[in-house]
């Protein structure tokens, strides 16, 4: 624990104070770009596409890749690398496939601010927009995962009690997002992405003095893992979520789909011109490669060096404390904290903008038909900002009961959302018979079955549960759309995508 070293403790505290001061200042600067609902949600054209790309990669990573997945690697060994390798390769390919057409649809529809609004415009359905906005509330559990990861860092390395760690993280994030919206979120995430890349590279470099073996360092790491437990070096695990070829294929399916998560795909809507998509996707790929392939290896090294940790999620914090000089350890710890915050702020922004833009904006006129467009925009912005506090308090309350596995909790939350929206987004690109009724059926069938599969233990593996729930979603949408399709629906398809 850092409290054993006053120099390390105070270095981390000073760096964190400076860091929180900077992100709050950026939030204040972003206030001028957050005076409308669209500006608060996307800050379109206000941030460099290179920085938006780094922000995408940082938001993608979160506590899951920096705490949760290394924790799984500590538990189950090298089979977890299937997840890590898919994060860069499969997810980035997914982004390259989806980004351009998604952006072009957004351009066709006008100033679209969120994924639920994109779906609502594509299918000409306000009911679908509201339904998906409700589905996005599953991201509260994702936020809980980030809270737990941050509190674990504070507790493990600084000695701050778990509950106070959660309170600090929630308070800081709500403050700068409430001030600066998407502008603050993307600028701070871009900076956080660079810190995360530096931390990941340092973890990799450290193997040469913690594990040894010179240029054969990975061979040495494998040998030591195998000596501890031969199951830790299996390509397909004996236990855990990577215990079959089918499960691994389902993981790749999940990672391919993950870039459709609303808090990530919203960043495509922040790009002003089509020409900026190239630097955006290139920046995403470079940063994502570094931060997704290196940090998880630290979990394997921690299993060799500290085989008896009480919590697997403490693998990376413990490895950093014991393996680096004071200043470097402090920098890496701040980098890990920034990794957690980079997803937390994106999730808060995604949930709250959806509440304001996709729920209140649609529902309010039903109760007061005299509201003007300007009044609705102003009120929806106030609702979005006000809901920050409510969502923050809700996530704080749920976070008080620490989950057994940070990674499993996070993946439950986003798998529920993806099971519902994957079919409407992907089929909406090219299938002329895709209808609003089919899309609604897909959202209900996919998300509903995923919850049933996981909560009733029908399918215990969360990746397989998502795969089969998504498959059912595609089938439901195909059948209902085929029955209800007409020329009106076909006219909504983007005719020219090249």
Automatic annotation (TrEMBL):
Signal peptide positions (record): none
Topology class, membrane: Multi-pass membrane protein
GO CC, one annotated term: plasma membrane
Pfam families the UniProt entry points to: SSF (PF00474)
InterPro entries: Na/Glc_symporter_sf, Na/solute_symporter, Sodium:Solute_Symporter
Assigned keywords, A-Z: Cell membrane, Ion transport, Membrane, Sodium, Sodium transport, Symport, Transmembrane, Transmembrane helix, Transport
Main location, first listed in the record: membrane
Subcellular location: Cell membrane
GO biological process, any: sodium ion transport
TM spans (from-to): 6-26, 47-68, 80-99, 127-144, 156-179, 191-211, 245-265, 277-306, 318-341, 383-400, 406-430, 437-456, 462-485
Alphabetized GO MF terms: symporter activity
Catalytic activity: L-proline(in) + Na(+)(in) = L-proline(out) + Na(+)(out)
Record-linked Gene3D superfamilies: Sodium/glucose cotransporter
Xref: PANTHER family: SODIUM/PROLINE SYMPORTER-RELATED, SODIUM_PROLINE SYMPORTER
Family the UniProt entry places it in: Belongs to the sodium:solute symporter (SSF) (TC 2.A.21) family.
Name under which the protein is recorded: Sodium/proline symporter
């Amino acid at each position: 624990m850092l409290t054993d070293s006053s120099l390390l403790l105070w270095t981390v505290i000073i760096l964190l104070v400076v860091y929180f001061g900077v992100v709050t200042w950026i939030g204040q600067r972003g206030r001028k770009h957050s005076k409308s609902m669209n500006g608060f949600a996307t800050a379109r054209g206000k941030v460099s596409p290179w920085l938006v790309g780094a922000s995408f990669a940082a938001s993608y990573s979160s506590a899951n890749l920096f705490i949760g997945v290394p924790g799984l690697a500590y538990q189950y060994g090298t089979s977890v690398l299937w997840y890590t390798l898919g994060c860069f390769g499969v997810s980035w390919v997914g982004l390259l496939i989806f980004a351009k057409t998604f952006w072009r649809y957004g351009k066709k529809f006008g100033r679209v601010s969120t994924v639920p609004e994109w779906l609502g415009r594509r299918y000409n359905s306000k009911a679908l927009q509201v339904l998906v906005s409700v589905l996005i509330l599953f991201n509260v559990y994702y936020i809980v995962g980030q809270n737990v990861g941050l509190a674990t860092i504070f507790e493990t390395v600084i000695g701050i009690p778990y509950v106070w760690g959660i309170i600090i993280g929630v308070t800081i994030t709500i403050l700068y997002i409430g001030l600066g919206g998407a502008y603050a979120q993307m600028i701070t995430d871009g900076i956080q992405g660079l810190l995360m890349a530096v931390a990941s590279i340092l973890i990799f470099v450290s193997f040469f003095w913690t594990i040894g073996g010179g240029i054969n360092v990975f061979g040495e790491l494998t040998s030591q893992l195998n000596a501890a437990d031969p199951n830790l070096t299996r390509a397909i695990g004996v236990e855990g979520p990577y215990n079959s070829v089918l499960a691994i294929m389902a993981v790749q399916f999940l990672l391919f789909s993950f870039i459709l998560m609303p808090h990530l795909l919203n960043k495509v809507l922040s790009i002003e011109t089509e020409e900026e998509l190239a630097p955006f996707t290139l920046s995403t790929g470079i940063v994502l490669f570094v931060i997704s392939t290196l940090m998880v290896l630290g979990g394997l090294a921690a299993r060799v060096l500290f085989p008896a940790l009480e919590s697997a999620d403490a693998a990376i914090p413990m490895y950093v404390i014991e393996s680096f000089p004071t200043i470097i350890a402090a920098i890496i710890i701040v980098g890990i904290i920034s990794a957690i915050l980079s997803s937390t702020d994106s999730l808060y922004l995604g949930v709250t903008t959806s509440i304001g833009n996709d729920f209140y904006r649609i529902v309010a006129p039903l109760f007061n038909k005299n509201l003007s467009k300007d009044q609705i925009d102003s009120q929806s912005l106030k609702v979005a900002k006000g809901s920050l506090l409510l969502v923050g308090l809700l996530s704080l309350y749920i976070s008080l009961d620490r989950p057994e596995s940070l990674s499993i909790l996070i993946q439950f939350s986003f798998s529920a959302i993806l099971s519902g929206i994957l079919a409407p987004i992907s089929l909406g690109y090219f299938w002329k018979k895709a209808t609003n009724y089919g899309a609604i059926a897909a959202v209900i069938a996919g998300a509903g079955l995923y919850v049933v599969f996981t909560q009733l233990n029908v399918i215990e593996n969360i990746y397989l549960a998502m795969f089969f729930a998504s498959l059912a979603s595609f089938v439901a949408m195909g059948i209902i759309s085929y029955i209800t399709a007409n020329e009106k629906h076909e006219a909504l398809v983007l005719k020219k995508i090249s």
